[in-house]
């Protein structure tokens, strides 16, 4: 059946859904008892609204000797409950039904086995009146029965007497925790026939004062006497008005939702501004711990090292093989084609770098949790460190992945390398040619025709020119390699910072943001549930 909508704000259905969502979000963050209570309210509401909403369940609750059983009999018009004075006589709840057709499932859900049909009078048809055991009974089972039904009934009628209306047990255990249930509560000061008119007024005024202190200002307070019948017409009229509206069940559920939401709110909801954590410092600290500066420096040096080996003078470039490659020494691009092979050999972070990284992670959690209530602040701080064990491997993979491109060889290296071999070949040709001329001269054979370039023999041009050209090309190539290495190092540094930033975002900032979003959703759901 569709629930009644309040004049303003969300419907009861929406509030129940919001309360259940708030309980789900609070799981593991707030005390389990409060979360369980909120879920129980939602489940109980679903059960109650599936039963008869044409019946209003009102319960007479009170202490030993308050006369609630006598009042129960007076309202029913016949003796249904045993009446006692000095000791509890009601051990289990019993029900009086005014037109109880269709209320069977409701009473079964309430677990009230003793039921009495009462002739309908006035506008009471649909009323299910319960007489509860004494809430201060010496029998534990009696008290537990009261506690159980107080949470289930639609309307609570508290019956007190002039001697014990200020009893701390009643106010602290029941009335004060039910401060949000004023719309479904009535307080009856019974046995006023024992008081004078002045005394009765004084007691009623004091009772209203105590109820205000309990947060129940505005709750109807009636004076009555089950023995003389005084005040019974007023009480009957109030019950008729509540029964005729058929809304007490919804008002009770609404109050239950408000109470459960208020308890969750008190444990972990404050009006705070939740921001987004800044990851700049975290990225710097993670970069240092991942060895990014070392890798960037190695990229520049490795580029120059490999350029010299590829474009240097062929007679000397082989010496580069005896020098360690900076990137291969770090295990980066060590595959056949520069691909990633296992973990890198980047040194583990030093104690100082580890401390900086841990401090940066802790600062992210502290900054994000600064204005949050403690249960959620602790959850945010934990979220910041939830993936500590995965950080080292993730950072190493970023270094290996983002640095792999540094092993690529520019095309101009092959061109210059080929040019160097041509120049070297010219030098060798010049040397061989001169050697042949020397042998011919030594053997006193006739000299062959010798071409010249501006009177300089070609063999000499080839030998000296090739050597000079090779050295010059090697020097120019080294300068170009140095500039290219700086450029490639800057490119790799940018890629590494971005990669490290992504790791920090995924493993540190991401979990923190998720926890903050969870808190935002929790407060929004509570806001709807409290409406």
Automatic annotation (TrEMBL):
The chain crosses the membrane at residues 412-440, 460-481. Keywords: Membrane, Transmembrane, Transmembrane helix. This is 50S ribosome-binding GTPase. Residues 58-190 form the G domain. It comes from Nonomuraea recticatena. The lineage of its organism: Bacteria, Bacillati, Actinomycetota, Actinomycetes, Streptosporangiales. PANTHER family: GTPASE ERA (PTHR42698), GTPASE ERA, MITOCHONDRIAL (PTHR42698:SF1). InterPro entries: GTP-bd, GTPase_Era-like, P-loop_NTPase. Pfam families: MMR_HSR1 (PF01926).
């Amino acid at each position: 059946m569709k629930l009644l909508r309040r004049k303003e704000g969300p419907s009861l259905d929406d509030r129940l859904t919001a309360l259940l969502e708030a309980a789900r979000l609070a799981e593991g963050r707030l005390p389990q008892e409060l979360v369980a209570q909120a879920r129980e309210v939602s489940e109980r509401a679903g059960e109650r609204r599936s039963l008869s909403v044409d019946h209003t369940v009102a319960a007479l609750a009170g202490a030993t000797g308050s006369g609630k059983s006598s009042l129960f009999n007076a309202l029913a018009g016949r003796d249904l409950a045993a009446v006692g004075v000095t000791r509890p006589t009601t051990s289990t709840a019993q029900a009086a039904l005014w037109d109880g057709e269709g209320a069977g499932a409701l009473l079964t859900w309430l677990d009230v086995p003793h039921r009495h049909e009462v002739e309908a009078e006035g506008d009471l048809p649909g009323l299910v009146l319960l007489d509860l055991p004494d809430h201060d009974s010496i029998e534990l089972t009696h008290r537990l029965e009261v506690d159980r039904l107080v949470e289930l009934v639609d309307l609570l009628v508290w019956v007190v007497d002039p001697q014990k209306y200020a009893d701390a047990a009643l106010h602290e255990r029941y009335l004060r925790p039910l401060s949000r249930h004023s719309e479904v509560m009535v307080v009856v000061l019974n046995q006023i026939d024992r008081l004078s008119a002045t005394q009765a007024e004084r007691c009623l005024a004091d009772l209203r004062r105590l109820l205000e202190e309990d947060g129940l200002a505005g709750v109807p307070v009636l004076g009555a006497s089950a023995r003389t019948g005084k005040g019974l017409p007023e009480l009957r009229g109030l019950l008729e008005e509540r029964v005729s509206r058929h809304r007490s069940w919804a008002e009770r559920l609404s109050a239950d939702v408000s109470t459960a939401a208020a308890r969750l709110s008190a444990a972990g909801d404050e009006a705070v501004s939740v921001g987004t954590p800044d990851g700049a410092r975290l990225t710097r600290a993670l970069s240092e711990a991942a060895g990014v500066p070392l890798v960037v420096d190695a990229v520049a040096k490795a580029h120059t090292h490999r350029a010299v080996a590829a474009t240097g003078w062929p007679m000397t470039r082989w010496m580069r093989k005896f020098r360690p490659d900076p990137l291969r020494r770090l295990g980066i691009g060590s595959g056949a084609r520069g691909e990633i092979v296992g973990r890198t050999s980047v040194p583990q972070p030093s104690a100082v770098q580890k401390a900086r990284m841990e401090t940066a992670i802790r600062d992210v959690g502290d900054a994000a949790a600064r204005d949050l209530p403690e249960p959620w602040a602790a959850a945010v701080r934990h979220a910041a460190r939830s993936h500590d064990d995965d950080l080292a491997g993730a950072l190493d993979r970023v270094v290996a992945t983002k640095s792999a491109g540094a092993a690529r060889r520019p095309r101009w290296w092959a061109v210059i390398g080929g040019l160097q071999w041509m120049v070297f070949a010219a030098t060798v040709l010049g040397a061989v040619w001169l050697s042949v001329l020397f042998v011919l001269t030594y053997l006193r054979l006739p000299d062959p025709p010798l071409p010249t370039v501006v009177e300089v023999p070609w063999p000499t041009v080839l030998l000296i020119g090739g050597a000079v050209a090779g050295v010059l090309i090697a020097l120019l190539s080294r300068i170009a390699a140095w500039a290219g290495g700086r450029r490639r190092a800057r490119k790799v540094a940018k890629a590494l910072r971005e990669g490290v930033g992504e790791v920090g975002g995924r493993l540190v900032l991401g979990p923190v943001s998720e926890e903050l979003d969870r808190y935002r959703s929790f407060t929004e759901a509570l806001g709807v549930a409290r409406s």
